[in-house]
């Protein structure tokens, strides 16, 4: 898909310096720009590259004034970084603006699809599914029976949405997401064997939730596993049965949350965090990467370590830990200088 400098300037309300008919069909870093690519300059330390780049079009701030000849066409805007971000958003919308139902795909006669759907090849939509308007379901997606999906939801290729799941509006699920698989529920017997506990609950995902690739969210044993509005989950996260994650909480990759734990709103949770089951984490909590959480956490706490303790206490203790060999050496020297008679 090609765009001219004039078309881009119209989108960004920018001024053209150079050829308005210059065309681009790809994006590039300014230092790697090639003919036919669009780039931008916002950081002053990269200014030298604008005189070297082969990019056909470059977005710059209105304050930029050249002091050498340029081969690239400029589009001058108030804030080049913000403008480039806006352009990426527009480009992404155009690129992902798919409509229609591809074949082969399997859609139950009892399923209801809203306005302007996109259903990719080899997708499966089960019995009594209700899908809202402008929903995009990419190839090889599975949607089980009785699932409800709101408006403007995008489900990328290979995701699996198990039965009874409820999804709000403006949600995005990246490839390989699995929603509603059984929770890890087994009952041990006196013989050391395990009996399966039926998982008959569901998963509820509210509006404006983004879920990264290969993240899994288990259905509840009873009731619901709940992901509140505005939650952002990174790739490869495990959310167990009956967990509840509060509004606008963000969790980084490879974090695991065990069953029945409640996480508050506006929390920030780093990568590779392990959170035990049946505990409560308050609002606005910050959990540093690789922390192990095994206790309740109050509102506003910042924690680190495994097992976790206060963030400030951890940093102070870590300084001493790094100096531990020196401390031991000092203690040994002090003991050598003490009188040998222990009574003294």
TrEMBL record:
Residues 21-89 form the UDP-3-O-[3-hydroxymyristoyl] glucosamine N-acyltransferase non-repeat region domain. Pathway: Bacterial outer membrane biogenesis; LPS lipid A biosynthesis. It comes from the Bacteria. The keyword Disulfide bond does not apply. It catalyses: a UDP-3-O-[(3R)-3-hydroxyacyl]-alpha-D-glucosamine + a (3R)-hydroxyacyl-[ACP] = a UDP-2-N,3-O-bis[(3R)-3-hydroxyacyl]-alpha-D-glucosamine + holo-[ACP] + H(+). It holds the Pfam family LpxD. Its EC number is 2.3.1.191. It is an enzyme of class 2 (transferase). PANTHER family: UDP-3-O-ACYLGLUCOSAMINE N-ACYLTRANSFERASE, UDP-3-O-ACYLGLUCOSAMINE N-ACYLTRANSFERASE 1, MITOCHONDRIAL-RELATED. Catalyzes the N-acylation of UDP-3-O-acylglucosamine using 3-hydroxyacyl-ACP as the acyl donor. Is involved in the biosynthesis of lipid A, a phosphorylated glycolipid that anchors the lipopolysaccharide to the outer membrane of the cell. This is UDP-3-O-acylglucosamine N-acyltransferase. The gene is lpxD.
């Amino acid at each position: 898909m090609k765009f001219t400098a004039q078309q881009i300037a119209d989108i960004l309300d920018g001024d053209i310096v150079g050829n308005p008919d210059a065309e681009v069909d790809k994006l590039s870093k300014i230092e790697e720009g090639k003919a036919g690519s669009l780039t931008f300059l916002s950081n002053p330390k990269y200014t030298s590259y604008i005189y070297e780049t082969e990019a056909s079009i470059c977005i710059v701030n209105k304050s930029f004034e050249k002091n050498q000849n340029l081969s690239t066409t400029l589009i001058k805007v108030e804030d080049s970084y913000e403008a480039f971000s806006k352009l990426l958003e527009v480009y992404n919308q155009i690129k992902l603006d798919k409509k229609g139902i591809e074949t082969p795909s399997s859609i139950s006669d009892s399923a209801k699809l809203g306005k302007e759907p996109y259903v990719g090849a080899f997708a499966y939509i089960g019995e009594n599914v209700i899908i809202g308007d402008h929903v995009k379901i990419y190839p090889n997606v599975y949607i089980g029976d009785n699932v409800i999906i709101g408006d403007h939801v995008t489900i990328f290729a290979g995701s699996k949405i198990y039965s009874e799941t409820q999804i709000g509006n403006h949600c995005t699920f990246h490839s390989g997401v699995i929603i509603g698989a059984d929770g890890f529920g087994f009952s041990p017997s006196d013989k050391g064997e395990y009996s399966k506990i039926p998982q008959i609950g569901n998963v509820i995902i509210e509006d404006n939730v983004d879920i990264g690739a290969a993240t899994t969210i288990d259905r509840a044993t009873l009731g619901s596993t709940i992901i509140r509005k505005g939650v952002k989950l990174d790739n490869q996260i495990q959310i167990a049965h009956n967990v509840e994650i509060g509004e606008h909480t963000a969790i980084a990759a490879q974090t695991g949350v065990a069953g029945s734990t409640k996480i508050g709103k506006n929390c920030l949770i780093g990568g590779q965090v392990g959170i035990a089951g049946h505990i409560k984490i308050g609002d606005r909590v910050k959990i540093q990467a690789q922390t192990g959480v095994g206790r309740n956490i109050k509102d506003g706490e910042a924690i680190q370590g495994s097992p976790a303790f206060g963030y400030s206490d951890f940093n102070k203790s870590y300084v001493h830990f790094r100096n531990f060999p020196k401390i031991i050496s000092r203690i040994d020297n002090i003991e050598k200088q003490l009188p040998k008679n222990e009574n003294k």
